[in-house]
Amino acid sequence: MRRSPLFWLLVLVGGIFLSLPVAFAQEKLIFGYSAPGLGDEGQWNIQKGFVDKCKELGIEVIVTDAQQSAEKQNNDIETLIARGVHAICAVPHDSAAISIAVQKCNEAGIPFFTIDRGVTAGKVVLTVKADNVKAGAIAGEVMLRLLQGKYNGIAKGKVLEIRGQPGQDVAEQRAQGFHQVLEKYPDIQIISLPGYWNTEEGFKITVDTLTANPDLDGIYYHADLYIPGIVEGIKAVKGEFAKVGEPGHIFILGIDGNPAGLDQVEAKLADGVVVQPLRDYGALIVPIIVDYLKRGEEALPKPGTVLVEEGASWSPAVVVQTAAGLEIWTNVFYVDYLGAGDPNLWGNKPRE
Amino acid sequence: MISVGRGLSPRPVAPMKRRELLKLLLDNSVWIIIAIFFILNALFTPKFFTVLNFRNILIHSSILGIVVIGESFCLLSGHLDLSVESTLALSAVLGAMSVKNALPVPLAVCIMLASGMLVGFANGALVRKLGLNAFVATLITYIGIRGTALGIVEGKTIWNLPTSLCFFGAGTIGVFPVQIVLLAVLYLLFHAVLVYTRFGRHVYLVGDNQTAARISGINVDRVVITVFMLSGLLSAFAGLVMAGRLNSASPLFGTGMVFEAMSAAIIGGISLRGGIGSLSMALGGVLLLSAISNVLNLHAVSPYWIQTIRALMILFAVALDSLKRRLMRYEE
Predict the structure, then answer these.
(1) DSSP B168-195
(2) Looking at residue B7, what is its pLDDT?
(3) What is the value of ipTM here, to two decimals?
(4) Residues near A210 by Cβ (< 8 Å), separated by ≥ 6?
(5) Which of A23, A27, A73, A313 is most buried, by the most CB atoms less than 10 A from its CB?
(6) What string of pLDDT tens digits covers the 332 residues of chain B?
C-alpha cells in the first residue's frame, strides 16, 4: 500500500517531537519508573521516594502507572524503551508477566532494576526490597513475648494469622518468618486463613474465627489494611473492643506501617507494627543506578556485604545473591504505640 | 397434546400432584440445598449451629445481599451491571471524605446515594441512548468509577468515621444488628416491587422479550435506566453499610464483589438472559455463598486449598440444582 507524503511527514514530525526531550537532555540522565498501581498507599510512597531522590540528583524521571494491569505494565515499559531512557526501575505487578518487557529491555541494552519484587525471567541488575521473612520473624518474636507475658512465661496460646494472597511471594515470606519462630512452640496454635488483601475479608475471618475460638489470644495480620476489619470484627463478636493494656485485650500486630496503621497503633487499637522503609527504597537504589551507568558491574555491592548509613531507615541492609539475582534486603523494625508517632517513619511523612 | 390426554383420564391426578410438588421443589431448590447444607454442618462443624454463628452468617450476607438486589434487577431486565463494586467503593470514599471535611452526616449520606444513582443513570444512558452493550458500558464505569475513588483519596484509607455514619453498618435495633434488619426489609420491599407493581412486571417483560415489551407499549428506555439507577443506588447504600461496618473507607472496597454478586444471583436461579428468577432465590444464593465461606473459616481450612474447596461446594450446590431440573424434565 502506498502511503501519502503527508503520512511520512507526520511520522517525521512525530519522531522529532518524541526524541526532543532525549536530544535536549544529552547531558542529563533520564530514568523510567514503572509503578504497578499508584492507588495503593505503599506504592505511592515507593514512587515518591524514587522521584525525590532523582530530583535531588538532577535526574529526569518518567513515571508510568500500570493501574494493576500486567499487560499495561509491559506496554508502559516498552514505551519507556522507545523514549530512550538510560535505565528503568519497576515494581512488578506480576513477576512472570513483566519478564517479556524485561527481556526487551535487555535486548535494547537498557539496565533494568526492580523494587519490592523480583522477575521470573530476564536480567535484572539489582532488586531492593524489605526483608519480609525477617519482618514475619520479628512479628513472631513479639507475639511470643506477649503470649509469654500473658501466661506467666509459658509459651502457649491461640493465634489467628490473616494472610495476604496465598502464593504471592510477599505473603509467603511474611508467613514463613512468623511460622519459623512460633512453630518451635507446640503449645502455640496458629490458625492461618487468607484475607486476599481485603479489609472486609479480614472482618469475616475475625468474626468466624472468634466464634469458633472464643479463647483466641492474638491476631497477626500481613498488612495494615486488615486492622479496621479486625477491630470491628472483635466488636461484633464480643460486643466491645478492649484496647492495648485493657482487660480482655486480644493482641494485634502485623506488617506495613502505613499512615492508617500507625494511627491505629498510636491509638492503642493494635499492639504494634513491623515497618518497612518504603519511602527510602529510592534513596538506596537511585545512587546505585547512577554509579552502575558510569562503572558497570563494578559499582554493584558484593553479596554478603552489609550496607550501613547512619540515620537511614533502610540501614542496615544485607546484599544477597538469590536465584532471581542480586538483591538488597533492607532493614525492618517494630514500633509500638510509643514509637508510632515518630515523624521520621514513612507513614508519618507528609505526602508532598 | 399428551398432557391434555393425561389430564382427561382419572388416573393422572396423582402424577399431577407430584409434578406440582416437583415444581415447588424446583422453584425453591436453593432453599432445599441450604437446608441440606445447614443440617450437614450442624452435625459436622463445631460452633456452626449456634445463634451467634447464624447472626454472623446474616451479617456477612448483608452487604453482598444489598448489592445482589440491584444486580438481580439488572439481570432480570436482561442486562449485566459490572460497576456495582466500583460504585460501592466510590460511595464509601465520598461519604468518608464528606464527613472528614466537616459536612453533616445526613448530607454525606445524600452525596453517597446520589453518587450511586448518577453512576446508574450513566450506565442506563450509555446502554439505551448510546446503544452500547451493557457489558461494555458497565465495564467502562467499573474502571472509571474505581479510578475516580482512587483519585479522590490517592489510595489512602480513611478511618475512624462518626458513629452516626456507622449506624447502618455497625448499629443495633434492640438485639438485632441493623445490617440484618436492613437485609430483611430491603428484600421484602424489593420483592414486593417486583411482584406487585407494574414496574416489576415491566422489568420481567423487558428481560424476557424487549421487542415484545416495546410493541406492547412499555417505555423500555425508562425501565432499563431506572433499573440501572436502582442498582447504583443499592450499591452506594452497600458502600454506606460497608464503611460503617469497617469504620473506614478505602477505594479498594468491594474488589471482586461483582463476581460474587453474579454468582449468588445465578446460583439462586436468575437467568443471565433475563426474565427468569426471583429475589427470594437470589437471597438464597447470597446466604449459601456466605454460609460456605463461614464453614471454611470455622474449619480453618488450609489457605492453599480454601478456594478449591469453596469451588467444589458451589459445584455441589449447582449440581443438585441441575439434578432437580433433570428430574422435572423426566417427570414431564
Answers:
(1) HHH-EETTEEHHHHHHHHHHHHHHHHHH
(2) 38
(3) 0.81
(4) A216, A233, A234, A237, A238
(5) A73
(6) 333 333 344 455 556 677 777 777 777 788 888 999 999 999 999 999 999 999 999 999 999 999 999 999 999 999 999 999 999 999 999 999 999 999 999 999 999 999 999 999 999 999 999 999 999 999 999 999 998 998 898 777 888 899 999 999 999 998 899 999 999 999 999 999 999 999 999 999 999 999 999 999 999 999 999 999 999 999 999 999 999 999 999 888 998 899 889 989 988 888 888 888 899 989 999 999 999 999 999 998 888 888 888 888 878 777 776 776 676 666 65
Residue type at B208 in one-letter notation:
D
pLDDT tens-digit readout, A268-278: 999 999 998 88
Q: For residues B103 and B95, what is the distance between their CA atoms, to the nearest angstrom?
A: 9
Among candidate residues B72, B278, B253, the one with its CA nearest the CA of residue B159: B253
B69 and B120 in contact (C-beta within 8 Å)?
no
User: What is the per-residue pLDDT across A34-46, written as a single tens digit (0 to 9) for each?
Assistant: 998 876 778 888 9
Residue B44: count other Cβ atoms within 10 Å of its Cβ: 10
| Type of residue at A234 | I
Q: How far apart are CA B288 and CA B267, in angstroms?
A: 9
Q: Is B171 exposed, middle or buried (0-12, 13-18, 19+ CB in 10 A)?
A: middle
The answer, yes or no, to whether residue A21 has pLDDT greater than 60, is no
Q: Using a cut of 0.90, tell me whether the model's pTM lies above it.
A: no
Closest of A327, A318, A307, A294 to residue A127, by C-alpha: A327
| Count of CB atoms situated within 10 Å of the CB of B209 | 14
A36 Cα to chain B: minimum distance (Å): 13
DSSP A322: E
CB of B154 within 8 Å of a chain A CB? The answer is: yes
Q: B247 in contact with A at a CB cutoff of 8 Å?
A: yes
Distances (CA, A) of A75 to A39, A113, A123: 19, 17, 18
CB of A183 within 8 Å of a chain B CB? The answer is: no
Cell for B109? 449520606
CA distance A230 to A235: 9
Rounded Cα distance, A78 and A102, in Å: 9
Is A312 buried (19+), middle (13-18) or exposed (0-12) by CB count in 10 A? middle
How confident is the model over A219-275, as pLDDT tens digits?
999 998 899 999 999 999 998 999 999 999 999 999 989 888 899 899 999 999 999
Task: Identify whether the C-beta of residue A286 lies closer than 8 Å to the C-beta of residue A32.
Answer: no
**Nearest C-alpha in A relative to B150:** A39
Interface residue B251 vs chain A (CB under 8 A): yes
| Residue A163, C-beta contacts closer than 8 angstroms, at least 6 positions apart | A171, A174, A175, A192, A193, A194, A195, A222, B303
Grid coordinates standing for B117?
Answer: 444513582
* Cα–Cα dist B169/B160, whole Å: 13
By Cβ distance, the residue of B63, B147, B159 closest to A260 is B159
- Measured distance CA(B94)–CA(B97) in Å, rounded: 5
* Cβ pair A232:B60 closer than 8 A: no
CA distances from B314 to A208, B25, B58, B121, B292 (A): 20, 19, 18, 33, 8
- Which residues make beta-bridge pairs with A161? A192, A220
